[in-house]
């Protein structure tokens, strides 16, 4: 039987390791469930509006953060373990634990940086009325729990769905996910539709 270490040395860097690594301690921590419930009560309920139509280019993302590092590369270094980067700030090795499914990856190509509150979801919840500068801040926010390194296929499956439509399959993370969602929406003054708010309330009540 071939061991994991042998497989990794053989070059199967995209293998999802069975045991999760210890996560780095500098990820933004979401507000508590009690605080999220308070914030949720003050978030306005409104139907989503996609007029004018969403344009991803209006959310300038992956801007330069420091030196040669853009937002994606900064999050990869922040969320990973033992991350080694090239002179161009590209991650050449390391490990990344995905909160959405509990898997650990050893290739940056298998990890996406998810906008926890998707850009289109923000747009239809009020960001269509923002300035481009405000949208750029939202798309590159490293202070709040809005950017997270996760399994790429799950990020793609999530797309622009809200809480009523999609929750992380790892049930033990759903409470933290909703706490973060409420924090981000509250901070940016975004609305929720009625189904989304009900879904948030249901998860927070069970936290």
Automatic annotation (TrEMBL):
Pfam families: GmrSD_C (PF07510). Residues 1-18 form the signal peptide. Keywords: Signal. Residues 100-198 form the GmrSD restriction endonucleases C-terminal domain. InterPro entries: GmrSD_C. Coiled coil: none annotated. It comes from the Eukaryota. PANTHER family: AMP-DEPENDENT SYNTHETASE_LIGASE DOMAIN-CONTAINING PROTEIN-RELATED, SECRETED PROTEIN. This is GmrSD restriction endonucleases C-terminal domain-containing protein.
